[in-house]
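Q: Give me a protein?
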Amino acid sequence: MANPSDLLKAWQDAIGEVGGAAASLVSGPAGAAGELLSPLQRQAEQLERVLQRQLEFEREVIGRAVAPARAALEIFEQTTTAFRSQAEAFHAAASAFEQVAELMEQEARLMEQAAKSVRDPVAALRAAGTAVRSENSGGKSKKKKK
């Protein structure tokens, strides 16, 4: 589609040429040429207004047609930001879950040791007694005589 300003310029040039031809054809007074040019000038002004309105209309139509695409791009940008924030949060959560898992492993080991101690209390007492005797005697056991 041709640019409205180009069409207007071509129309004005054409009217100017017609006006020049009309002026040379009229052998009467200069007022007769003016009478012929005046309607052509008004017609050019009307055409200019029409083309200007058409240009404004086209800009508005294109603006409305492109508006959904602009809105979609804005939504995509916001969604991308949200996804990045969620990814960072999941990384932090994963780190926290790793720490919790390590603590739970330690608790499980302690519970296993406690369960073994409850199953065999005598062995636990012997082990504890041996440990206490070895600390008191420097590793050697002493027997008392009666």
